[in-house]
Design brief:
The protein is mainly alpha-helical. It contains 6 helices and no strands. The protein is elongated and about 55 Å long.
């Protein structure tokens, strides 16, 4: 039985070792927080993390990190906030942009709380949001 378990683990080991090499190439080292992640999970998740967090995508890197910072603040995760702040600054975010992200995050949470407490009618809200969006498009086209 032991031999069959080793045979199952073996195919992943090459993929896992290649993943560690790629992480080291990307960061200059393998961060300790990645080591407790199950080997098969890290080997599968790293390419997606690398592509969408660090690679080129539709959303520019700085803005992806500011979005990540807003999510981190909402989750109240100091690890994520520290990482996304450092990455955002690394991609050129200014202290002013970081502060504005904090404000926008707080405003979203604030309005979400108010809408929930007053139990505002969702279909009415959806119609109003569509009208706000149309008005925004009109203002952009006027510029």
């Amino acid at each position: 039985m032991e031999g069959s378990e080793d045979a199952l683990k073996e195919p992943f080991m090459g993929e896992y070792e290649d993943t560690l090499k790629d992480i080291e190439k990307s960061f200059g080292f393998v961060p300790g927080f990645m080591k407790p992640v199950p080997k098969d999970v890290l080997a599968k998740q790293w390419p997606l993390l690398k592509k969408y967090q660090m690679g080129e995508s539709v959303i520019p890197q700085k803005y992806r990190e500011l979005i990540g910072l807003a999510v981190a603040a909402t989750l109240k995760c100091p690890y994520c906030a520290l990482m996304h702040t450092a990455m955002a600054k690394g991609y050129g975010a200014t202290d002013e942009e970081i502060s504005e992200t904090a404000y926008l995050t707080a405003q979203t949470a604030n309005w979400s709380s108010m809408l929930h407490v007053v139990r505002y009618d969702y279909p009415t809200f959806a119609k109003e949001v569509d009208m706000v969006g149309e008005n925004a498009k009109k203002k952009v086209s006027e510029k």
